UniProtKB/TrEMBL annotation:
Membrane topology label: Multi-pass membrane protein
Keyword Ribosomal protein: no
Protein name listed in UniProt: Transglycosylase-associated protein
Residue intervals passing through the bilayer: 20-39, 46-68, 74-93
Annotated GO CC locations: plasma membrane
């Protein structure tokens, strides 16, 4: 992979979609709540759902950027990406905390 291709790949994987910051907060809250329902059967409170959803969107966006252009997605694609990443995040956190107990 040459320098230009690597730069384009990094730019594509970190580009924000067109939903805006308010959209990210709304999608983050919804994605965090849904991921909590999927993984553990309940949400984690509004603020924690937002954090889980936004971090999940970053994780999901990074993982999906290997396969598709994530910057081209709108609300629905961003929500799917955030849910996917949040489920992965909660699953990993669950595995790590379970191994400590």
């Amino acid at each position: 992979m040459d320098v230009v291709a690597a730069t384009e790949f990094l730019a594509r994987s970190t580009t924000l979609t067109s939903v805006g910051w308010i959209g990210y907060i709304i999608i983050g809250a919804l994605a965090g709540w849904l991921a909590g329902k999927i993984v553990k059967g309940s949400g984690s409170g509004l603020l924690m759902n937002i954090v889980i959803g936004i971090v999940g969107a970053l994780i999901g966006g990074f993982l999906l950027s290997f396969f598709v252009d994530t910057a081209g997605g709108g609300w629905w694609f961003t929500l799917f990406t955030a849910i996917l990443g949040a489920v992965i995040l909660l699953w990993i956190v669950g595995k790590v905390t379970k191994s400590r107990v």
